[in-house]
Design a protein that fits this description.
The protein is an alpha/beta fold and 194 residues long. The protein is built from seven helices and ten strands. It has a six-stranded mixed sheet, sandwiched between helices. The protein has a two-stranded antiparallel ribbon with strand order 1-4. The two termini are 25 Å apart. The mean pLDDT is 95.
Length: 194
């Protein structure tokens, strides 16, 4: 049987991970790091989406959820993957999207999708660097009256104390990552030395 998590780790390493200790990457946050993750190269890949959906389904098997989403664009493919995997398993978890700015017309809302105040939701994102995008998602969800039940990230970069910032914003909701930079570096180093 295919080990979804191990296969996802291989896929992230081959498609989304770059390591350059001598020439650090400039990140969106303005900080630099020798590690770069372009996770959309994995989340927008059919196999990557399938694996993420299955893994997320297993991770939230016993978590009551009425929706899954996060800040567009990083969260969108992950939320969609879970929505589809859950549906195949007979569970309805609709996707919602947190806009980067409110709609300019109509209701001027921040959140799109079929969620209502009081709904328990899962916040997702592809990579946590400083935690800013995830924290915005959590704040917008709370402002819309949603209850953040849990937060799951595809990759924890394990830098800039990001997970701690996200945990504070999430209050008592669990915050987890599917993969960590440490795991990916171990796989990277094992391949480099082979």
């Amino acid at each position: 049987m295919l080990d979804f998590r191990s296969r996802l780790k291989e896929l992230v390493l081959s498609k989304s991970f770059r390591y350059s200790p001598d020439a650090p990457f400039l990140l969106t946050s303005g900080k630099t790091s020798p590690y770069y993750f372009d996770c959309k190269r994995t989340t927008l890949e059919p196999e990557g989406a399938f694996l993420i959906g299955e893994i997320l389904c297993d991770m939230v098997r016993d978590v009551p959820l009425a929706g899954v989403g996060g800040l567009t664009l990083g969260a969108d493919p992950m939320a969609s993957a879970l929505m589809h995997s859950a549906w195949r398993r007979g569970r309805r978890i609709p996707q919602f999207i947190v806009r980067k700015e409110p709609k300019k017309h109509g209701t001027a809302q921040w959140i799109e999708g079929n969620v209502q105040p009081g709904d328990r939701v899962l916040i997702v994102d592809d990579v946590v660097t400083t935690g800013g995008s995830v924290i915005k998602s959590i704040e917008r969800a709370k402002e819309a009256g949603l209850i953040v039940q849990e937060v799951i990230l595809l990759v924890d970069r394990e830098e800039f104390n990001a997970m701690e910032h996200v945990r504070i914003a999430a209050d008592s909701a669990p915050v987890r990552a599917i993969l960590t930079k440490t795991e990916l570096m171990e796989l990277y180093n094992s391949k480099e030395s082979a």
